[in-house]
Amino acid sequence: MSLPPRLEKIVDRFGRAPRELRVQALLQHAKKVPDLPDEFQDDRSALEQVHECQTPFFLATRVDDEGRVHLFFDAPKESPTVRGFAGILREGLEGEPWEDVVAVPDDFYSGMGLGEVVSPLRLRGMGAILNRLKRQVREQVA
């Protein structure tokens, strides 16, 4: 599986971590999701809801003139699992070339051992976030 270097490092760290530390690491990534910039707070219509998530989750992507992807997420702070996954995606994919982002395998998180600490329903939501993100990127570069 070929992943962008920062995302690969995250996957490796999670995969090697004991089960109980994976939950803590996921919660730490939840804290890394920045607030939405003013452009999205003022006009939320640019955000797309991911309905497969159990909690209200919204995202937007931007591909800049150099072909680099920028990610924007909005999820309640009371939903640390989904925010944690958003934090992982942001840390691993922010600023990466669009080609590398759309090439991320849909199940990349399986190597993280999250199936042992997160419900299948949450994993389905995580996969939906990634799929929605990749679709938005593909539409922008088409």
Structural class: mainly alpha
Q: What is the number of helical segments per DSSP (H or I, 4+ residues)? A: 6
CATH class value: Alpha Beta
Strand order of the largest sheet: 1-2-3
Strand residue percentage: 5-15%
N-to-C SSE series? HHHEEEHHH
- Mean pLDDT across all amino acids: 93
- The CATH architecture name reads Alpha-Beta Complex
Walk me through what this model shows.
The chain is mainly α and 142 residues long. It has one domain (5-137): Sufe protein. Chain: A (Alpha-Beta Complex). 49% of the residues lie in helices and 10% in strands. The chain contains six helices and three strands. The chain has helices at 5-16, 19-30, 38-42, 80-93, 98-102, 120-141, and strands spanning 48-49, 58-63, 69-74. The chain has a three-stranded antiparallel sheet with strand order 1-2-3. Strand 2 and strand 3 form a beta hairpin. Helix 4 runs parallel beside helix 6. The longest helix is centred in the C-terminal third of the chain and has 22 residues, at 120-141. It is globular.
